[in-house]
Structures are given as structure tokens and as C-alpha cells.
Amino acid sequence: MPWQALIQFIDAETTSSVRDALDGRSIPRYLLPAHGGSCNLRISYSAHKDMNIKIQSNRSK
Length: 61
What we know:
Nucleotide-bd_a/b_plait_sf, Polypyrimidine tract-binding protein-like 1
């Protein structure tokens, strides 16, 4: 099941560094449920310029 998250960083340099460091990396198996599959990160830039959280719940943290 794919997961999606939007993360906003303070500046473009930090954003680029994080993307370069994590894109394509695997999440360690001990952090994953016991389904046995692998999980690789696919990180891309959003078309959104800014994020506005209207309500904070278990679906938006």
C-alpha cells in the first residue's frame, strides 16, 4: 500500500539536500510491518507552493 506525505522545509537548499540524500533509499526492514516486502522512497517536488493545514487530525499531522 503506497503512502504519501507532504513535507515543507525552511529553504530550497535544505529541500534539495534532503531529496538528494533520501530519493531511492530503502526503509530498513525492522521498521516495516512483517509483510516481507521492501519499501523504497520515491521523493519528488510538489506542484504546491505552500501548505495550509486547515485541521489537524490523525490524517494530517
